[in-house]
Write a structure and sequence with these properties.
The protein is an alpha/beta fold and about 450 residues long. The protein has three domains: about 180 residues, no CATH class; about 180 residues, 3-Layer(aba) Sandwich (Rossmann fold), CATH 3.40.50; about 70 residues, Orthogonal Bundle (Helicase, Ruva Protein, domain 3), CATH 1.10.8. The chain is about 45% helix and about 10% strand. The protein has 18 helices and ten strands. The protein is elongated, with a radius of gyration of 29 Å. InterPro entries: 26S_Proteasome_ATPase, AAA+_ATPase, ATPase_AAA_core, P-loop_NTPase.
Length: about 450
Amino acid sequence: MTKLITYIPAVELALDYLFAVLEHQMVPNEVPRPARPEFVDDGSPFARFIEIFKPTAAELLALCLALSPHLRPGALDAIVRQHLPDGGEMPAFGGVRGQSYRGILPTGQTLLFLLSSRPGGALGPLSGLAGASRVLKLLRIGSRLVNAKLLSLEPPPRGEPVLSGKLVVNEAWLGELLDVGEAIPACGPDFPAEVLRPVLGWPDIVLPPTTAGELERLRRHLGQFERLSRLPGLGKYLRPGYRGLFHGPPGTGKTLVAGLLGEELGRPVLRVDLSGIVSKYIGETEKHLASLFDRAADRRWILFFDEADALFGKRSETKESKDRYANQEISYLLQRVESFPGIVLLATNFRENLDAAFSRRFEAIVAFQPPGAAERLRLYEAMWPTAVGVDPETNLAEVAGRYALSGGQVAGALRFATAEWLADGGTGPIMHADLLAGVAGEFGKVGWMFKG
């Protein structure tokens, strides 16, 4: 409950504005229409939204109207009862009853009532074609509210006016607004992705200077991509979303960085389970991908494709029908990645294995280089078990300089050496021979020749 206090002031101010305008529409008078309030940055999700999106007065009223049943249940019913104390209906006000929720749910007609001029009194004629056109422009495909996946106008029952459809706020945005997050389906056949939760932080990452510089630029730009797309002029020429490629040998931190970027941006990272996506049956891979992209389109998820070359590999020369279908899959992927409005990250051990057409579609490409001797030494020192000694025979700087391991391989070598130390009683230092045996084991895993 304490957490909710941070966002209540900005939301309450907006809702007060909504009901002041509703009251003005209900009562015929000469008083000017209430002015849009000025918001201050109180640190709440709603205030941050106002600062970034900068809604017009009409957009703000539309959003608040859709939010009102969630944040002020029964308030729409109360204002109607106040002005119709003897009962009856107000067709111009619009609204429908829900199934579980018995109060008034706003419709496009309610928004029309809210935004229209009212010559003739409280129940007088609304501004007809001009008013309906104004509302439909706010709620049509291509409008800012719809493009940003904030709200939608549901189709009305067959044969009824288009504005009699319900005005519905996006569930994901509502969860973000309330700072309670959103439910993410469990990984399974119907949802081949799982949340990536890093156990380390940015201070734990050791990268060569070139990789660190490329990553820092990506972090700076990724935090601004939503604002960038809304800039007048340039914004309309930019593709929706943001795409990044991480490439480099295994164990260099690509997956960890993807998870940390999600934490930094306040977005869950969904690592796609390729075994649940790729199918030997014609058309099934595209079907699975379409389902995943469609479900993620109006969420704040980051889609992360690890070992992406298994799915985004090079198109081949068409010799058999299976080649044609495989190439169709890659072309479909190109189209979905390019049109996806959110963030997509791809990681691969070998950039050259990806189809060449992908390169120009990435806003950022980060090469995760293997750590140099200085970085490897920092890794050994950071990972060495706390309060456990180093064998006098061991010169960590020499080991780091002689054996070119990745960060993951350094961890593997230390894991082996520490397990041997524990098996021998867990006293004294970690033996030099055990450390070298761990290094040799990491060399053997990838088919390298080890010289002790």
